[in-house]
Amino acid sequence: MERDLPDVIAEITAAFEAYERALVADDVEGILAFFAPAAVRFGIADQQIGIEEQARWRRAQGGLPPGRRLKDTIIQGYGESVAVVTTLFGYPGSDVLGRQSQTWVRLPEGWRIVTAHVSEPARQPT
């Protein structure tokens, strides 16, 4: 079945919003369900290759600080089976905006994240 690009964007928007809810709720199993088995994730001070490494890391990591907010989220579709999500994120009491990107691929089991990258800009010396 061929899909229109707006349909792909709507599907990824819904998947990304569900992922974000799981992330904020620290629902580890819910978060992991969005990743492909061989997904590569680079975090601010960590990296995981494959779902097993990510599961171990997420279970040890603990939840996010409260009040996470997103800014300038962009969802781009590339055909009917690939999409890229980029967003900025921040927390109350901090002017630092982190950066997050995800590549989503339509697999037989549904849309899954195959690569993810999270970073924060280097702090400028005062």
UniProtKB/TrEMBL annotation:
Gene3D superfamilies: 3.10.450.50. Keywords: Isomerase. It holds the Pfam family AtzH-like. InterPro entries: AtzH-like, NTF2-like_dom_sf. It comes from the Bacteria. SUPFAM superfamilies: NTF2-like. One of its GO terms (molecular function) is isomerase activity. This is Ketosteroid isomerase-like protein.
